[in-house]
Amino acid sequence: MAKSTLKEKIGYGFGDMSSSMFWKIFSYYLPFFYSNIFGLSLVDAGVLVLVTRIWDAVSDPMMGVISDRTNTKWGKYRPYLLWVAPFFSICGILLFTTPDLDYAGKLIWAYVTYILMMTVYTGINVPYGAMLGVMTDDTNEKTVFSSFRMFFAYGGSFVSLFLWEPLTNLMGGYNTPGGWFWAMVVIAAACFVMFLLCFFMTKEHLKTVSTVSVGSDFKALLSNKPWWLLIGAALCFNLFNTVRGATVAYFFQDIIGPSVTLAFFGIVFAFYAGLFLGVGEVSNMVGVASCVPISNKLGKKTTFILVNASLFVLSVLFFFIPCTPTGYWLMLIAQIVISILTGIMSPLVWSMYADVSDYAELEFHTASTGLIFSSSSMAQKFGGAIGGAAVLWLLSGFGYITDPDILKAGHVVQPEDALSCLRWLMSFIPACVALLSMCIVWFYPLTTERINKINAELKQIRSIED
Predict the structure, then answer these.
(1) How many other C-beta atoms are found inside a 10 Å radius of the C-beta of residue 225?
(2) pLDDT score at 14
(3) What is the pTM (predicted TM-score) of this model?
């Protein structure tokens, strides 16, 4: 097989740069948008987030099966980048549109646009993820592709998160529906261009053909022990990220305060949610760049366990950081280290899904790359759903105030129970999730030696078939 080029790796990265710009805004700002801008109650917003992602549990595997059985001159998965990109951008804009309707009408609008957005996201992101399984047959090269993917993803996330609040202010105001709508128009246009770049700069090098029925594909998937363990661990990883990320906007609004500044060598700058999240995305990029040398030296499984152990410790320590000028610097440092660690995890998980796909091809004689990668998308969305809904429901249960009339009157002092809940959501709760993820992957059987043996056997089989 021809060796993949730098152009292909960069092109592949553009795809997740586009997806992540949308995904991080959805994960970190959409709950805040629904409760504080759009006007939904915390309970209704939480149910909306959860119900929408349940639909994804159906649509993701469906899209995986469809893309596995697509055959065009461009390959199985790559054509969807071209076909779905326009709808991806349009649905993102609709999601952040606030119609002039009564409460019931707005709730219906929110359900329809959110379900549409997640369906389209599935339609482009599942095939995009599955491309990793057919762009190279080298397990280390897959980690390199994953690293390019996540490096670009975090770069896009940094841009969208760092600029989101300034962009909304420029477009009409952070606390106005119009500001959020026009900010999303700008982001959506950029995402459309990046998906086109991904399509034109990449190529599928491997041709895989499933020799079994759709039912057999699903049966093989359900019998795939490494898949079950990895999807559980990945769901926890996404839950960790979403709980922390979805809490940040509330944390800064009500605990840090809207007008906190920090000084660095005489330079004074605002310490706000977008900066905190944006610094995290840059730190994620450092982690992504570290993933290949670390995982090659330690092995993927060991790296996964050590990273989660570190996330557990750092999350617990975050609770004890005081809200003082020194404490704000410590929060920023903790965010940097935590984000470097999650940056290591992101390409690692995608590379491990590619290994699970190879295991399935050898063990069950099924080329179900799309179906397996759709499960990773499903884990991402379920983690986001559970995390986003949990944040909203917990805040509601502890008395967090979202009444529009009260909020319009000025800065609101939230109940002490709600403030304590915010602190737990940034510390002990994600710490427990990291611990659970570490325990699950302890039983993951695809060690480095096992994967090397699988790849060697597959290479022989594929050469005989050719």
Answers:
(1) 14
(2) 95
(3) 0.72
